[in-house]
Amino acid sequence: MKNIKTLSTATTMCAVFAIAVSVFGATKSYASDIMMSVLLKSPVHEVASDIYARYGSPSPNAMAIAITSTEKPHLSMAQSIIESAGNPSAVGLSGEEGGWQVIPDCWWPVPKKPRDQAVQAQTILSLLGNGGNDTSLMRMQTALRKYNGSIKNQKTRVYADKVLQLAFSIAVETGGTL
Predict the structure, then answer these.
(1) How many helices (H) and strands (E) does the chain have?
(2) Is 6's pLDDT higher than 50?
(3) Are 141 and 164 in contact (CB under 8 A)?
(4) 30 and 94 both lie in a single domain
(5) Are residues 70 and 138 in the same domain?
(6) How far is it, in rounded angstroms, from Cα 102 to Cα 79?
(7) Phi-psi group of 85: left, alpha or beta (phi > 0 → left; psi -120 to 50 → alpha; rest → beta)
(8) Could you say which DSSP state residue 111 is in?
(9) The CATH number of the domain where 102 resides is what?
(10) pLDDT tens digits, residue range 123-145?
(11) Could you tell me if 48 and 9 lie in one domain?
C-alpha cells in the first residue's frame, strides 16, 4: 500500500472527496468545500500561490488550486504563466480565453473556473501529443508547439522551449513538491 505522502495532491484531494461523500454522506458541494479548505492550508498550495504571485497573477490562490487538478502541475503552471501571466480572465487578441489562452472556436468553450481551465488545457495537450501519458521531452515539445499553432515555425519552437524551461525551473525550485 502506498504511503499517503507519496500520493499527489490531486489524488489525495480525490480521496478526501470520496470519503466525505460516501462515508459521511456529505453533499458534493460540502465535500468540495472541505477539499478547498484542506488544500488552502497545504505547503504545495502556498508554494504554487507564491510563484503565481511573483509572476503577477491576479488570482494566485485560484491558479494554485487549479494546477493541482492536473497530472503535470509544473507544466500546467509554466504554460499558464507564459500564456497569460496566470490570469484566468485573460482575453487574447485572437480570441484566446482564460489562463491557458484556449481559442474556443478551435476547441470548445473555455470554462470560467481556473481548475476547469487547467483540466481543459491538459486535455488539449494530451490530444495534441497523440494521447497517453508519455512524458518524453520530444512529445511534450511537439504538443506545446501544436498548442501554440504549428510545429513548422520558429515562433512555436521558442514558445515550447520557454514553457519547458520554466516548468523545469519550477520543478527545481519546488523540489518536485508541485
Answers:
(1) 8, 0
(2) no
(3) yes
(4) no
(5) yes
(6) 11
(7) left
(8) P
(9) 1.10.530.10
(10) 999 899 875 555 678 888 999 99
(11) no
The answer to whether residues 13 and 70 belong to one domain is no
Are 161 and 76 in the same domain?
yes
On the question of pLDDT at 42 being above 50, the answer is yes
- Supply the range of the domain harboring residue 14: 1-41
Instruction: Express as a percent the part of the chain with pLDDT over 70.
Output: 72
pLDDT of 26 > 70? The answer is: no
User: How many residues appear in the chain?
Assistant: 178
CB of 95 within 8 A of CB of 104? yes
Query: 65 and 34 in one domain?
Result: no
pLDDT digits (tens, 9 = 90+) for 63-91: 999 998 888 899 999 999 999 999 999 99
Residues 67-70: contacts with CB under 8 Å, at least 24 apart: 67/118, 67/178, 68/8, 68/9, 68/10, 68/13, 68/39, 68/44, 69/10, 69/115, 69/118, 69/119, 70/10, 70/118, 70/119, 70/122
Are residues 91 and 16 part of one domain?
no
pTM of the shown model: 0.75
Q: Indicate if 18 and 84 belong to the same structural domain.
A: no
CA of 97: how far to CAs of 29, 89, 100, 173, in Å?
Answer: 27, 7, 7, 28
Dist CA 56 CA 84 (whole Å): 10
